[in-house]
Amino acid sequence: MGLKIGAVSLMCQNPNVWRAMLMAATPCPVVKYGKIIVGKRAMLEIKQRPELLIPDYLDDKEFYDAILGMGVETDEAEVPTSSLSERYRSSSGE
After folding, report:
1. Rounded to 5 degrees, what angle do the CA atoms 8, 9, 11 make?
2. Where along the chain do its domains lie?
3. CA torsion angle for 36, 37, 38, 40 (degrees, to 10)?
4. Which of 9, 48, 49, 86 lies in disulfide reach of 82, CB 3.0 to 4.6 Å?
């Protein structure tokens, strides 16, 4: 059937899976205004509204705030804009 996002969403109902996905920097899909958000956009949305989107946020707020970098200023220039695969892909055709 090819319902990958549906399958991941079902798995993400388990808080342990949710936490593991977040720690692997591949957050569970979230819904905003009826649209599914995945990847970096999902991470940004989660950071803006963690109490709504993280199932056990209030149970372990300190842990999630540390993972999400809540209250920490980041210099956007330090954050790579290319994907991980693009940064390690050989451009010389080797």
Report:
1. 65
2. 4-88
3. 180
4. 86
| 3-state SS assignment for residue 63 | helix
At 71, the pLDDT band (50, 70, 90 cuts) reads: confident
Q: What is the pLDDT of residues 43-66, one digit of tens each?
A: 999 999 999 999 999 999 999 999
Which tokens belong to 8?
């991941």
Q: What is the pTM of this model?
A: 0.68
* Alpha-carbon span 45 to 32, nearest angstrom: 9
Helix extents (H) in the chain: 4-11, 15-23, 39-48, 50-53, 61-68, 84-88
Q: What count of Cα atoms within 13 Å lies in the side-chain half-sphere of residue 64?
A: 24
Extended strands (E) in the chain: 30-32, 35-37
What residue type is 49 in one-letter code?
R
Q: How far apart are CA 41 and CA 55, in angstroms?
A: 18
Q: For residue 24, which phi and psi values (nearest 5 degrees)?
A: -90, 5
